[in-house]
Amino acid sequence: MTSIKEALEQIGELPTHMWIAGQKVSIGSRQTIECRDPGSGQLLSTLPAGSKDDVAHAVSVAKAALKGPWADLLPKERGRLLWKAGEALHAQAAQYALVETLDSGKPLQDAKVSVQRAADYFMYYAGMVDKLEGTSVPLGPNKVAYTEKVPVGVTGHIVPWNVPLSMVTRGIAPALACGNTAVVKPAEDTPLAAVMLIELLEEVGVPVGVVNVVTGFGSEAGQALAEHPDVRHITFTGSVATGKKIMHAAADHLASVTLELGGKSPHLILGDADLDRATPDILAAVYKNAGQICSSGTRLIVEKAIHNELVDRLAEKSEAMQIGHGLSNPDMGPLISNRQLQTVVGFADRAKGRGIDFACGGNPARVASNQGGYYFEPTVANNIDPDDELAQKEVFGPVLSVIPVASVDEAIEVANNTDYGLAAGIHTKDITAAMRFAKSVEAGQVYINGYHSSGDTVPFGGFRDSGIGREKGLAGLDAYSETRAVTITL
Ligand code: NAD
Predict the structure, then answer these.
(1) Right CATH for 4-261+467-486 from 3.40.50.1470, 3.40.605.10, 3.30.2350.10, 2.40.50.1070
(2) pTM, entire model
């Protein structure tokens, strides 16, 4: 395993600044945020906690940049810049992956995949820049009407800590493709790669001021960004409670929002499922990123005929999982912070108090080589009532809630029995049952016989409390253009 010291040496200098108008903005007299390695608790870097004034400065710079050389680029030139950004990020993927592992705790192999995905967003949207076409509308012989797409203006991007870099690029790549400028507020726990990325964008030729990053706390820098009247669209991923605050703030100046919020996604395993295929898929769906993915398959809804056998298999595999520091490429890394660990412990302890049966796990995990890290055991909570807290609330940790059901109809009813509607999966050989499920489940994405199998070009977003709008794919462009309709009378 690469040690933390070796990883830090390979990375070189970690950011200790924000990035506004092509300048490093250092701590000065500001408050600070501490960036820690979740695997060991070690302090990695201290950065400025950006203020309301810093946000106002970044927004004014981004507003001015809308009229500068950025606006004069031909679409194909803008596309080329995005492509170059993707290439540069791919070329530096190993270094960025080390940063993502140290900053967010994820296993190095997963960090590499998410950095590559971050780079791919630039390349995917690079190809769209010169294809943002309008339409013409027939109005008879004496009129001509057409529409064109124009940028919405300054876009704000408020980003969570679970997949830090690719959450930034899946927002700013389509925003830039459509000709907008951006101010990014990364999560206070994981700001490092975002700051590095903005420097990289300017190195490949994105004009100064087009993208700026203000590090800091959500309650100050995030709130100020959402409230700023010159921010015309806000893209946010995170908790439902914060999403509501952002939507309220945006309403005051009628900015549009894309909200990608939480989930309690159902994963149905019907009696005819191929359990050899389903078992690893169920485990990956819930334990990937230590369960800190909004679309994790956290409610396992199982037909009774296979319930006991499947739970035995899941418990055995869960107990065999290797937990450790992300740099050692374990099966599962730590949670993001002690705060998140305590949240997960709280869910487990309350469940124990209600007499819930854990087929495995349920406790913080000890990792002898990294005792300061925030680890929790892979956990299977069995025989959960569909209305129990563990079936209704987002734990955001490696906890699977197993709900036995008697029929496909009951499974579908249980699947829809939460406030969320983000993702849903099913394993079955019965195509009719799978399609019935796909058509009746209230979820933004449905996975049949392969959870999380859609990649980065398929639209992603939620129904109900899981959010508003779509990111990724062509639908991910919709939020970033206004339509101007021009009618000419001949
Ligand atoms: P959060 O929603 O509070 O934070 C996400 C981002 O929003 C961060 O950048 C944060 O600084 C910012 N923010 C916080 N308050 C803000 C405000 N008032 N105005 C503007 N921006 C603000 O998430 P959290 O507190 O870090 O985590 C809490 C829970 O949120 C987790 O347990 C999990 O359930 C959920 N979560 C979901 C996702 C997801 O991918 N959907 C990601 C992270 C967290």
Answers:
(1) 3.40.605.10
(2) 0.97
Determine the 3-state secondary structure of 183 from DSSP.
strand
3-state secondary structure of 112: helix
Start-end of CATH 3.40.309.10 domains in the chain: 266-456
* 246 CB within 6 A, ligand 1: yes
* 35 in active site: no
Query: What does the pLDDT look like over 202-230, one tens digit per residue?
Result: 999 999 999 999 999 999 999 999 999 99
How many angstroms does the Cα of residue 324 sit away from the middle of ligand 1?
Answer: 25
Model confidence pLDDT, tens digit, residues 247-268: 999 999 999 999 999 999 999 9
Mutation test residue for ligand 1: of 184, 239, 252, 394, the one with most atoms within 8 Å of CB: 239
- CATH architecture assignment, domain 266-456: 3-Layer(aba) Sandwich (3.40)
Helix H, strand E, coil C: the string for 436-462 is HHHHHCCCCEEEECCCCCCCCCCCECC
The yes-or-no answer on residue 294 being catalytic is yes
